[in-house]
Amino acid sequence: MVKDDIEKVLDEIFEKSHLKEGDLFVVGCSSSEMIGNTMGTSADGETDQVVETVYGAISQRLAAHKIDMVVQCCEHLNRAIVCDRSVAEKYGFEIVNVIPQPHAGGAFAVKHYGSLPDPVVVENIAQKADAGLDIGGVMIGMHIHPVVVPIRLEQRHVGEAYVLAARHRPKYVGGERAVYNKDI
Fold first, then answer.
1. Nearest-angstrom CA–CA distance, 135 and 116
2. Domain 2-139+150-164: which topology?
């Protein structure tokens, strides 16, 4: 069920978000919420299978499109971001010294950290994400370029967790006589 849910969500995001190669995509995920628990309350190991399934689906799809994936840590790490060193260097993000743990960073951040060739944590990404996925109400909007626009999803759950997705669009300028490109 969770695999089908995340595949449907990803299909919708790619259909509606205008993502392109080289974009930056932020994921925030409460593994506890996916299995029906309150955020941050699952026991160690309780969410391993759901994290493996959802992480695999997201990371494979983004990699296939050559989109950089970053993962938001939980509030215990002030919503810091796990990324590969190459991404941090590409964008000039400042690296901080912390290694996410299941109850200080979250299981999804731990999975991302352990899956990267050269993992680092950065304090923030200065609103550089082009789009993102919020699984379980972890509040990723602070990491996306202004102006953040919701992606209206028909698939509204992954497991038991509510999902929200968002993308950015360039600011509208020019007033009432301006013409805007609907494809960006």
1. 21
2. Rossmann fold (3.40.50)
Contacting residues for 47 by C-beta, under 8 A, at least 6 apart: 31, 32, 34, 35, 107
131-172 pLDDT, tens digit per residue, is 999 999 998 988 988 899 999 999 999 989 999 999 998 888
* CB within 8 Å of 98: residues ≥ 6 apart: 77, 80, 105, 121
Full-model pTM: 0.91
Residue 150 tokens, joined: 């919701």
Q: Where are the domains of the chain?
A: 2-139+150-164
Query: What is the DSSP annotation of 141-182?
Result: GGGBPSSEEEE--S--EETTEEEEEEEE-PPP-SGGG----T
